[in-house]
Specification:
With 660 residues, the protein is of the alpha+beta class. It folds into 6 domains: 72 residues; 108 residues, PAS domain (Beta-Lactamase, 2-Layer Sandwich); 113 residues, 2-Layer Sandwich (Beta-Lactamase), CATH 3.30.450; 97 residues, PAS domain (Beta-Lactamase), CATH 3.30.450.20; 88 residues; 128 residues, Histidine kinase-like ATPase, C-terminal domain (Heat Shock Protein 90). It is an enzyme of class 2 (transferase). It holds the Pfam family PAS_9. Its EC number is 2.7.13.3. This is histidine kinase.
């Protein structure tokens, strides 16, 4: 007897239906017999049997309906499991003909089921693997176990795909058959090929990379490439593979940390975060220590001892350059902080990037307080002119300012504003401002200038005194020697008047010689200046010039009392020289001399209406002529400053002022 959930076989169902039909026909025969042939007892018994049989028929009919329902459910389940399965199912004969297949199998082969029945399955195997399929089919029919093979199949239109074939022999009344399941493994094959290609690329990258790469597992090197051997100077892999990861490093790092502790901590952090970087000192095979940057990346985390991919990079040169840069920076900072100049650097936005100790002294602000802030904000007195100067420097112009004064600090300062350029750039990236206190330098320079002027004045005074002394000596010699001799000659000629005409001519010449001698003697040393002072001497000078044809108007004020002898001699000689220049060069028709003394100040000017000077000769050029140069020197010796105003055709005014 079958279990309740087992569908009844179709043979049993047909037999039951046939038996039910036979019994129904028997009862029909009983019912159709004439009633007169039977007794009432028989008729009653017959009715009872008919009722019993009717009940049995109804029960059997219900059982048939139930069996039919179960059979339909089983068929639907079979169709769902077979026809709509996600795996291709085929029934093949021992010659490889397709007897039956499901929808997935038809879809795999690329056509409808009706066109695939009674066709050879080998036609859908690529020609290069049909022999393998034949051998697989032979194994299926010769064995009771499931056989497997993976082949490259092709659809009706020639499209190829990979399929996994699982075959099992089944014996049927019609003969042995192969129940074949086909699974599309194209994606798996592609993934496998991609994985193999990836592994090949990784292996090539690992072995042929110019970067040193090692694999670490359980704190030991398990593999390395040629670049890693070159980095450590190792001859072969045996010198590295199998050793602990810190075998080629000193016991302690430069910071005093143990190398083994550094490695353990870095490895733990790499496993925790997925990657970690560190810098470590390692030892080359030659014994030389090198700096190495190591980047650790775990690549296999499934096992108890993960594999860590480690890339080494030799950074010895970079560390040395960094050390030199740090030393250079420290030297620069020391240089800036110890220089006597205030150093301020700003960027293109005029924000402060450098501020040394001397700048703190000048402006009273610490570097930490001002760095990164706008210059105008740090220095409120940074006015529009200063901003324009910085803007010009940012445009590439160097600006030098000398002897400037600051509002917030006494003294005088030289300021140099210099554009700063980065290497290879054509536009300034910032501005460097150098401020130097030159107060003491200017004071010393001024003192030196004053001292030099005093020495020059002393020399000039000595020269002038010597000149005056020599003039006086010559004048006395002319007056007392040559003048007396000429006068005696005149008296002698006057006593010998034998030839009246000749005597008169001789006496006339002698009178001219005596007057010229007296004039030269007066010009060399005007005795009237020593005896009566500057006012009388100037008046006498104008009287002596009048016969030469140059009218001179003399305006004197405040000269009623004597001045010091050096001032009187200097003013007299200056006026005398200027009037001589007017007579020689100016072609003037009139001259005016103005000398006024008031409140210890002496104003002197000589004006003429002559032809004047070229204006260009008075700007940045030495004064023309020896006379004007002598006048300038004499005025400078007296502590004054000569001023000359001249226009072509309109005359010249020469003036100076003296403190007496």
């Amino acid at each position: 007897m079958l279990p309740p959930d087992t569908p009844a076989p179709l043979t049993d169902l047909h037999a039951s239906l046939l038996e039910l039909r036979t019994r129904a026909e028997q009862r029909r025969a009983l019912v159709t017999q004439p009633t007169e042939l039977h007794s009432p007892e028989e008729m009653q018994r017959l009715v009872q049997e008919l009722q019993v049989h009717q009940i049995e028929l109804e029960m059997q009919y219900e059982e048939l309906l139930l069996t039919q329902t179960e059979a339909q459910a089983a068929r639907s389940e079979y169709v769902d499991l077979y026809d709509y399965a996600p795996v291709g199912y085929f029934t093949l004969t021992d010659t490889g003909l397709i007897e039956q297949l499901n929808f997935c199998g038809a879809r795999l082969l690329g056509t409808v089921r009706q066109q695939l029945v009674r066709r050879r399955f080998a036609l859908f195997v690529v020609s290069a693997q049909r022999l393998n399929f034949g051998q697989f089919l032979a194994r299926v029919f010769s064995s009771d176990s499931t056989q497997s093979i993976e082949l490259k199949l092709q659809q009706e239109d020639g499209t190829t795909f990979f399929g996994q074939l699982e075959g099992l022999r089944v014996d049927t009344p019609a003969g042995p058959q192969c129940r074949l399941a086909v699974l599309d493994t194209t994606a798996r094959q592609q993934a496998t090929a991609a994985l193999a290609a990836s592994e090949a690329r990784f292996r090539k990258l690992f072995t042929e990379s110019c970067s040193a790469v090692v694999l670490v597992q359980g704190y030991h090197f398990v593999d390395c490439n040629a670049a890693a051997l070159r980095l450590l100077g190792a001859a072969d892999r045996q010198q590295l593979v199998g050793q602990v990861a810190w075998a080629h490093s000193p016991e302690y790092q430069p910071d005093g940390r143990r190398t083994i502790d550094l490695f353990h901590d870095t490895m733990a952090e790499a496993l925790r975060t997925g990657s970690q970087r560190c810098e470590v000192v390692m030892r080359h095979a030659s014994g030389k220590e090198i700096w190495v940057e190591a980047v650790l990346t775990p690549i296999e985390l499934g096992g108890s001892t993960p594999v860590v991919h480690t890339v080494w990079r030799d950074i010895t040169a970079a560390r040395q350059a960094q050390q030199q840069l740090r030393q250079s920076k420290e030297f620069t900072e020391s240089l800036l902080d110890n220089t006597v100049d205030g150093i301020i650097a700003v960027d293109q936005a005029q924000c402060i990037t450098a501020w040394n100790a001397q700048a703190t002294t000048y402006f009273g602000r610490e570097a930490a307080e001002v760095l990164g802030r706008p210059l105008a904000e740090v220095l409120p007195y940074f006015n529009n002119e200063s901003q324009q100067l910085v803007a010009r420097a940012l445009a590439g112009e160097r600006i030098d300012l000398f002897g400037r004064e600051f509002q917030q600090r006494p003294g005088r300062y030289d300021v140099h504003i210099v554009p700063l350029y980065h290497s290879g750039e054509s536009q300034p990236s910032g501005v460097l401002t150098v401020v130097r206190d030159v107060t003491e330098r200017d004071r010393l320079a001024e003192e030196a200038t004053q001292q030099r002027l005093r020495r020059q004045q002393e020399v000039l005074a000595a020269i002038l005194d010597t000149q005056e002394t020599e003039r006086k000596r010559i004048a006395e010699a002319l007056h007392n020697g040559l003048g007396q001799l000429l006068y005696a000659t005149k008296l002698s000629l006057a006593g010998r008047a034998g030839v009246p005409g000749l005597a008169r001519e001789s006496l006339k010449l002698l009178d001219e010689a005596i007057r010229a001698t007296r004039t030269i003697s007066f010009e060399l040393t005007p005795g009237v200046l020593e005896d009566f002072g500057l006012q009388t001497a100037l008046q006498e000078l104008v009287k002596r010039i009048a016969p030469a044809g140059l009218p001179v108007r003399l305006h004197l004020l405040g000269l009623g009392h004597r001045l010091n002898s050096q001032a009187e001699i200097g003013v007299y000689r200056t006026v005398q020289e200027l009037l001589n220049n007017v007579m020689k060069h100016a072609h003037a028709t009139e001259a005016v001399v103005h000398v006024a003394y008031e409140n210890g100040r002496l104003d002197v000017s000589v004006e003429d209406n002559g032809r004047g000077f070229e204006p260009a000769l008075l700007v940045g050029q030495p004064l023309p002529g020896i006379g004007l140069a002598g006048v300038r020197n004499r005025v400078a010796l007296l502590g004054g400053r000569l001023a000359i105003s001249s226009r072509l055709g309109q005359g010249t005014i020469v003036s100076f002022e003296l403190e007496v």
